[in-house]
Design goal:
- By secondary structure, the chain is of the alpha+beta class.
- The chain has 15 helices and 23 strands.
- The chain has helices spanning 6-16, 38-57, 74-78, 81-84, 101-107, 118-128, 175-179, 181-187, 234-250, 297-306, 332-343, 378-391, 405-415, 425-430, 451-460, and strands at residues 20-22, 34-36, 62-65, 86-91, 98-100, 146-149, 153-156, 165-168, 194-203, 218-228, 258-262, 272-280, 284-293, 312-313, 320-321, 324-331, 344-349, 352-357, 368-372, 397-399, 419-423, 432-437, 443-447.
- Strand 4 and strand 5 form a beta hairpin.
- The protein is globular.
- The model has no long low-confidence stretch (mean pLDDT 95).
- It binds adenosine-5'-triphosphate (ATP).
- Adenosine-5'-triphosphate (ATP) is lined by residues 172, 204, 206, 215-216, 219, 221, 287-290, 329-331, 333-334.
């Protein structure tokens, strides 16, 4: 049998252990859609909480927001999405499979300029077409390149269908931040420079969703927009870049799996753009997070289209200006995949090969698992249940009495549980239990009445 790639193993683990399920699976599955299962939603929530703590809780000049997904359709005109949010599409003439031309060119070592017109990209595609094959049927006969808009359109309001108002699902989450720039200033003590942070859903009609959570059609983005005085962007931009990279390191991502990439071709309004890339299994280094210096484009556009003055008046100097914006934007699915890939390890413990997720304790879906040594000894089971009930309000805790203890350890290793507590016969005599460490497999005995404090201490470090 052929050895599975690491990506295939991660996808299989996600399914087997209830992290990620294919969207609409019982109907045959829907491309680019995934559902987060019981452990997946815990990891996702922990990632969001860690990100929120970093960008809102421990800051003095960042403010949180959660804006409505449906927005006035003019928002997407002002932002440039209705006219310019598109990817170059071509179709296989034989089997009609759609390909995203710039990505297929990239796969054969040709980087297309982001500013290229359809015609220019078409010419580049024709030049290199001999090297590009349909991912499904392998032929290389393709239709001419055309721009394909990624916005997802729907209707709202009138259900008779006669006066339906077309609205768009958000193509990116950050627009809600620009719309509330003035509200946040008017209702808080925000003074430029300051930031707004938001986690929100986005929807994109991706031409070819692929690589598991890396490219999906429904995604969630964690964004910050930092507002600065025009031209006072450089120091803040460097700080933000430094902090974002360090955050991944602090959360446990290995340094050699992260790197920077500067955009060679900027969109017309941007002054600088960098990506933090992660070394995704199978895919290699690819974009994890974008950090963009967007100048005054967003507030100027929304000011123009809404007719509302979105300039800022400095309360000390009286100076009036439209702030420049420094943005960070990361897809939580990509973040999830990066953390999962980085934590995924196969090692040997006690002579046995095992799979273990070496997640930082703060990210682990379950912090503590409690086991009775034997399922058929009621006194062990009831003691273990009692301990489980004590820990449950403090930590995400799981009780397990299925199979032998070794098998239960393996299961917890696979979902990344940092500590397992086992109640054995000694526990009934001297009021102690064992705590087993996920990473080393080492065990120590602690008094039951000290258990919570010991676990709190261990999980903190
Ligand atoms: P790409 O070039 O890969 O299509 P992008 O440059 O269009 O991505 P942005 O619009 O800058 O991406 O979005 C910010 C972040 O949102 C990305 O860094 C990525 O983490 C995430 N993201 C974008 N598109 C997707 C998607 N289809 N699926 C999952 N995450 C995505």
């Amino acid at each position: 049998m052929q050895e599975l790639t690491t990506m295939e193993k991660i996808v299989a683990l996600c399914k087997r252990r209830g992290f990620i399920y294919q969207g609409s699976e019982i109907y045959g599955g829907m491309a680019g859609m995934y559902d987060f299962g019981p452990y997946g939603v815990e990891l996702l929530n922990n990632l969001k909480a860690a990100w929120w703590k970093e960008h809102v809780q421990i800051r003095e000049n960042y403010f949180g927001l959660d804006s409505a997904m449906f927005k006035d359709p003019r928002v997407w005109e002002a932002s440039g999405h209705t006219s310019g949010f598109s990817d170059p599409l071509s179709e296989c003439k034989k089997c009609n499979t759609r390909i995203r031309v710039d990505k297929e060119l990239e796969n054969v070592g040709v980087v297309a300029d982001e500013k290229m017109s359809e015609v220019e990209l078409g010419a580049l595609f024709t030049e290199h077409k001999a090297k590009i094959h349909c991912p499904k049927c392998g032929t290389n006969e393709f239709t001419p390149v055309r721009a394909f808009n990624l916005l997802v359109k729907t209707n709202m309001g009138d259900f008779t269908g006669e006066n339906q108002v077309p609205v768009y699902l958000p193509g990116e989450a950050c627009q809600g931040i620009y719309l509330n720039f003035k509200n946040v200033i008017d209702t808080t003590r925000a003074k430029v420079p300051f930031g707004i942070a938001q986690i929100g859903k986005a929807f994109r009609n991706e031409i070819s969703p692929r690589n598991f959570l890396f490219r999906t059609r429904e995604l969630e983005q964690a964004d910050t927009q930092f507002f600065v005085r025009p031209h006072e962007n450089k120091d803040a931009y460097e700080r933000i870049k430094r902090e974002r990279f360090q955050w991944y390191r602090n959360m446990g991502i290995r340094e050699d799996n992260l790197r920077w990439k500067q955009h060679a071709n900027l969109v017309f309004y941007a002054s600088d753009a960098w990506d933090i890339e992660y070394n995704f299994p199978t895919l290699g280094f690819d974009e994890l997070e974008g950090i963009h210096d967007r100048t005054d484009y967003d507030l100027t556009q929304h000011g123009k289209y809404s007719g509302v003055d979105l300039s800022y008046t400095d309360p000390h100097t009286g100076e009036k200006y439209v702030p420049w914006i420094l943005e960070t934007s990361v897809g939580l699915g990509r973040m999830f995949l990066a953390f999962l890939s980085d934590a995924y390890t196969e090692d040997k413990l006690g002579g046995e090969t095992r799979t273990v997720l070496r997640l930082a304790p703060s990210l682990a879906p379950i912090k503590v698992a409690v086991f009775p040594l034997l399922k058929n000894k009621p006194e062990l089971v009831s003691k273990a249940k009692e301990i489980y009930k004590t820990l449950q309000p403090i930590f995400m805790t799981e009780f397990d009495d299925n199979g032998n203890v070794g098998k239960r350890y393996r299961r917890q290793d696979e979902i990344g549980t940092p500590y397992c507590v086992t109640v054995d016969f000694e526990s009934l005599e001297d009021g102690t239990v064992t705590i087993r460490d996920r990473d080393t497999g080492s065990q120590e005995r602690v008094k039951i009445d000290k258990l919570t404090a010991v676990l709190l201490d261990k999980l903190k470090s």
